[in-house]
Amino acid sequence: MDESKITILTNSENIEELSQILSEFLTCNGNDFSFPHLCENNRRVILWTALFQHLQKPTSAAVHAICLATIRVLSRDKSDLENLLCEKWITVLIEKAGLYSLVGLENEAMVPLELPPKDVAVEALKCLCNLAFNSEVARALCAHTSIAQGLVARLRVYKDIPFKEEIMLFDMKLLFILTALRHDIRSKIKDELHGMDYLISCLNELVLEASEQNKDFDASASGGPETDFCLLQDHQQAIACEILKTQFNLIIQCGPEEPLDETEEAMFLKLMPVLTTLLNTRTSNEEKLVELHSNIANLLTSVPSIFYPYLTPEMNKNETAANVYDERNMDALQSLVQFLHYKLSNTTNTKNQYENLSPILTVLVKSARGSRSQRKYLRQVVLPPLRDVSRPPEMGSTLRNQLCRLLTTPVTSVRDLVAEFLFVLCKEKVSRMVKYTGFGNAAGHLAQKGLLGGARGAPYSSSSDDSDTEEYLQAQPHIDPVVGCTRPPRANPFQGMTEEQKEYEAMKLVNLFDKMVSEGVVKPARVGPDGRPQAVDHVMELLEHQPNRSQS
């Protein structure tokens, strides 16, 4: 945009002329993210000032939407953005978004009769999202306004807004950005404005709305029986994801779980049934379902484990479910298992292992620890009774195979989570862990826990669901516990050698091992009293304190 057009925007009151100039700018620059030509002769400041001046004039109402669209595009460029903004301009955007008109509402009956037009309100929200994301100054200015009160107040009146889908989506995006990047706004929304309660209510309303739409569709389409599942439309799925991300910001836990007060406990008791229902919903395609489940898993990482049993409610007499175990509905937990399977199958390198796998693995570890029924169900799905033991545990495409492969990943945080998950499913029994993973895969985790000596971890119930199959019992004497599978018979390498040749080969092996030790390639160790490996100074120390093999 050249100086002549900026001058017209500054001085002209001709609506058609203003609209034409701004439309041309949006057509040419609608997909751009930087505008270096505006750095010359202070053009950027003059242009922004002209746009906000028109936004404050009632006589320019016809171009308010296109002015906001222009600001939205310009706000993508971070160049000198900090110096452009002022509290007055942020206030103008908040007013155009219809948020100030909601501040001070004390009950749902006090719904404002007038809101800005849809295109104006939505464009203003988009501008606020861009500015809050790109500028710390913008976020600080927002913190000094009543934007938090306006956003929370609007959570209560969406059903009375005719264009609520668009408003809800960008309200939630703005709320997510502000709660993610401003601690003071996050604390205010959580503690003073009780934002979590309203966000949970919004999720409930979304699910109920989707269920009603499904019922209406079934009735009009076939006249047959109603379907049991809930299908989220694309706009509902997008809003739900933004709500879940905002909730994650509000309850994120950076340290160990702390005692909850009554208010927090009541909040989690309301949240868990909604998350259970969302895990059982469907979407228009797999990509959107994965996105939904990913946000639910992220949120669940901050939910205390004592509330995890609510993911698998007890079955009523006339209730049906696709996955039932111990008289509980396991559909939501099965959705998390399927999400894990998807993540494992689509994580092909170590670069993004932590980001992709850490949340869902954390959730399943907490689930297995928090509920006996959930642990037994997960054990049944992830570690079913062994039948074919001819291949190492890490070879194959089952959940067990994929998880065993991760026991040797260089990403230590993922490796430890996988090992902990499998160890809990094995009721923290060393022998059972070795049986399903092989000692070579499990050795690192057992060493960390001081269990190399074979001791048992935390106590579990005495009842055992580890019934060995007939195929496993037949193959058991031939299983190599180090690799966790049977090995074909191998020829004796010393066959046909004289005693002198055998002694020669043995000395070569001793010399090679001594060289590796002296050069620091390997360091001999033994299992200490604490069950962890302890280094020894000389190989001969390995012979000390050995058990008497004859006294078995």
What is the count of DSSP helices, taking H or I runs of 4+ residues? 24
Order of helices and strands: HHHHHHHHHHHHHHHEEHHHHHHHHEEHEE
Low-confidence stretches: 106-113, 221-227
Q: How many angstroms separate the termini?
A: 91 Å
Helix-strand makeup class: mainly alpha
Sheet-strand content, in percent, reads: under 5%
Secondary structure: number of strands: 6
Radius of gyration: 32 Å
Query: Mean pLDDT across all residues, rounded?
Result: 88
Question: What is the strand arrangement across the widest sheet?
Answer: 1-2
Structure notes:
- The structure is a single chain.
- The protein is 57% helix and 3% strand.
- It has 552 residues and is mainly alpha-helical.
- Among the domains are: 90 residues, no CATH class; 186 residues, no CATH class; 34 residues, no CATH class.
- The strands form 3 sheets. The protein has a two-stranded antiparallel sheet. Strands 3-4 form a two-stranded antiparallel ribbon. The chain has a two-stranded antiparallel ribbon with strand order 5-6.
- The radius of gyration is 32 Å and the shape is elongated.
- The N and C termini lie far apart (91 Å).
